[in-house]
């Protein structure tokens, strides 16, 4: 295996802040789960991006579903619904590409706390609030998620090898920019 894709994979995972325990000083990177098998037509960046974005989107969907129903402001509920719908469509595309790699849909980041990830603790905190406080917590979490997925998607678009994966990454990065602009209009 060439070292370039492995080094880039490590960089992406480290840039994403992937760590098994946030208190550790050095991130624990599950390299064996991604770098040992890179399917033909893909590189380590493609695989790492797919294996990171899919669980991030899955977890964000739970929060988006909740906010579409419980947001105190109609504009918050509307934005949550729109973002949720686009995330669901993107998630289908992400899974289709992952299926083409032949790699399992295993979440190699299970239990990791990464920037932009809607963790169980954060979801619990947000779901326990109501009214404007709910909206505020939701918008903060959504902003972190959108910014991080835009960041790592730009990295995939620049350094990935698979044309379809890079095109989806560009599309997601662009969508996140639009969604962040809409979110900024709602944030105090």
Name some characteristics of this structure.
188 residues; disordered N terminus; single chain; 71% helix; mainly alpha; Ferritin
Please give a quick description of this structure.
The protein is built from seven helices and no strands. By secondary structure, it is an all-alpha fold.
Task: Sum up the overall morphology in one term.
Answer: elongated
Secondary structure category: mainly alpha
Figure out the total of helices.
7
User: What is the chains' assembly state?
Assistant: single chain
Largest sheet: none
Tell me, rounded to a whole number, the average pLDDT: 82
Protein name: DUF305 domain-containing protein
Signal peptide: 1-20
Domain DUF305: 46-186
Keywords: Signal
Description of the molecule:
The protein is mainly alpha-helical and 188 residues long. It has a single domain (3-186), classed as Ferritin, core subunit, four-helix bundle (Ferritin, Up-down Bundle), CATH 1.20.1260. Helices cover 71% and strands 0% of the residues. It is built from seven helices and no strands. The protein has helices at residues 3-15, 31-35, 44-70, 74-101, 120-127, 131-159, 163-186. Helix 6 (131-159) runs antiparallel to helix 7 (163-186). The radius of gyration is 17 Å and the shape is elongated. Residues 1-20 form the signal peptide. Residues 46-186 form the DUF305 domain. Keywords: Signal. It comes from Nonomuraea rosea.
């Amino acid at each position: 295996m060439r070292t370039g894709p492995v080094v880039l994979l490590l960089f992406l995972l480290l840039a994403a802040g992937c760590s098994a325990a946030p208190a550790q000083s050095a991130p624990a990177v599950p390299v064996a789960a991604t770098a040992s098998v890179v399917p033909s037509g893909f590189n380590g960046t493609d695989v790492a991006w797919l294996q990171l974005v899919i669980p991030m989107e899955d977890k964000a969907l739970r929060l988006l579903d909740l906010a579409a129903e419980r947001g105190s402001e109609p504009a918050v509920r509307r934005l949550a619904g729109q973002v949720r719908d686009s995330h669901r469509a993107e998630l289908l595309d992400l899974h289709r590409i992952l299926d083409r790699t032949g790699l399992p849909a295993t979440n190699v980041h299970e239990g990791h706390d990464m920037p932009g990830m809607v963790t169980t603790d954060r979801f619990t905190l947000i779901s326990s609030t109501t009214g404007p406080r709910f909206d505020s917590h939701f918008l903060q979490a959504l902003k972190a998620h959108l910014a991080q997925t835009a960041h790592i998607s730009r990295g995939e678009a620049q350094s990935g090898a698979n044309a379809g994966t890079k095109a989806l990454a560009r599309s997601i990065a662009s969508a996140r920019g639009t969604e962040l602009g809409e979110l900024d209009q709602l944030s105090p």
